């Protein structure tokens, strides 16, 4: 018996001999995960969930009149400056310190953005007056959910879109800001959304790549801050959110490791043929 199709052989079409399974290979491309490595990678999901939680809590504080927009703007400005210094320090640690010219360009961009947002804050405040509040809340919830779904967590998948994720978060912030008391509240809320959804992920990804231990500490502190802020709004919501964070950071990695034991991908001579051509002969 020969494994060819162009010869007539005295065997059935589905006949194979004992040597057919000698080239059987299992799970040759399977990736083996380590539990703590998966827990570390889940930090991005935890960070983004906490970012959405903090944003919603801050919006609730401002809507209830418990937080003045001046205090939030001042705290956000100080936090942005500290984050910028930390980002520049991390860049300096790998020999890429920003020049004075680039720092001046960043400052001008920040001033232009603040001026532009402040100038259009009355428009943002009255943008959705004709839409009911329930619709605004529903739209904001859907947009924030989409932001979490399309966010770039480091996976190479077609659903990932950083631009779409950021735009959905900003759209949700504009919708929620339009329900605040005045245009100053709307300006501060949109500015805070840019800080937590655009600037903060840049810093956390840099810390994750350069200082993993510091990144884990910041993730834990950020999660605790989100839970403490949510506790002032709803105790039931705090318990449910804490269970969600524990499930994502501890239970889901454990389930992934356990499911790896059941992976059984087989490879052998029955696989589709792959045409591999030597491209060097076409370049000569």
Quickly describe the structure.
This protein is mainly alpha-helical and 284 residues long.
Question: What are the defining features of this structure?
Answer:
single chain
Structural overview:
The chain has helices at 35-41, 43-63, 69-93, 100-126, 133-150, 162-177, 183-210, 212-231, 235-260, 280-283; strands at residues 25-26, 266-267. The mean pLDDT is 83. By secondary structure, the chain is an all-alpha fold. It contains ten helices and two strands. A two-stranded antiparallel ribbon has the order 1-2. The protein has a domain at 46-63 and 72-86 and 105-260. The longest helix is centred in the C-terminal third of the chain and has 28 residues, at 183-210. InterPro entries: Plno_GlcNAc_GPI2. This is Phosphatidylinositol glycan anchor biosynthesis class C. One of its GO terms (biological process) is GPI anchor biosynthetic process.
Number of strands: 2
Global Rg: 27 Å
Spans of at least 5 consecutive residues whose pLDDT stays below 50 are: none
- Alpha-carbon distance between the termini? 42 Å
Order of helices and strands: EHHHHHHHHHEH
Subcellular location: Membrane
Pathway: Glycolipid biosynthesis; glycosylphosphatidylinositol-anchor biosynthesis
Keywords: GPI-anchor biosynthesis, Membrane, Transmembrane, Transmembrane helix
Family: Belongs to the PIGC family.
